[in-house]
Amino acid sequence: WILKDGLGHLGAIAFGTVVNTRFDSDPKRFRFQAAVLGKAADLLSIFTLGRPEYFLLLSTVGSAFGRISASTAMSCRAKIYETFATHGNLGDVLRCSQAQTVAAQLLGTGVGAMLGPLVGDDLVRLLAGNALFSTASLYCAYTSSSLVQMSTLNVQRAELVFHDLLPGLLRTSPSPSPSPCSLAVEAPGIDEVQSREVFVRPYRSVFPGPPLLVNPPVSSSGGCLVLTS
Predict the structure, then answer these.
(1) Over the stretch 152-191, which tens digit does the pLDDT of each residue have?
(2) 126 in Cβ contact with 24 (< 8 Å)
(3) Of 17, 38, 93, 183, which residue has the fewest beta carbons closer than 10 angstroms?
(4) 3-state secondary structure the chain
(5) How confident is the model at residue 133 (pLDDT cuts 50, 70, 90)?
(6) Which of residues 60 and 210 earns the better pLDDT score?
């Protein structure tokens, strides 16, 4: 048990260290990944009943997945809740979230208590029930994550904005005496960016050529950028 729980905690710490600030820039992706890891942990826990000789291995990996899932979900929660606090009411949002969490836990406990005698300890029934509820859980996680509207820019959202913005800037001919209002271009709104943002599959840049880098290192031996009017 010490080895199982210890490796689970170490896995959660290592995963959080690798992801680092991306929890804030891409919380929807990692929130959904946390849900997937949580369901994988449940599946491994069921397999320990069918293969007790691999109990230590399966329970250790399952515990690591569960700890990583819980740590990842907690790390993404603040940034996601921030998008719902449109009037500075973050405390009220947290209160509602806590109430919904407790209600869902009570409902799940009640359903589990009713279905427990019917399912029993049969491995096939346990796997079938787990597949059914895991599918429903992942669908709800995907739907809820897709509804989150991020108001900040990461690489993906910035590329989606500038992919539509740059053609308008290039087509617009500035006046001889440019003013702050001389250029009129239309940028995609938050709703449009939300509908086009992907967080399950890996993001592929909409721009051809080299990838967009945030805060790239600048060397003295690099080329020069010349701006002409």
Answers:
(1) 888 899 888 888 887 777 775 555 555 555 556 677 888 8
(2) no
(3) 17
(4) CHHHHHHHHHHHHHHHHHHCCHHHHCHHHHHHHHHHHHHHHHHHHHHHHHCHHHHHHHHHHHHHHHHHHHHHHHHHHHHHHHHHCCCCCHHHHHHHHHHHHHHHHHHHHHHHHHHHHHHCCCHHHHHHHHHHHHHHHHHHHHHHHHCCCCCCCCHHHHHHHHHHHHHHHHHCCCCCCCCCCCCCCCCCCHHHHHHHCCCCCCCCCCCCCCCCCCCCCCCCCCCCCCCCC
(5) very high
(6) 60
Query: pLDDT: is 19 or 74 the higher one?
Result: 74
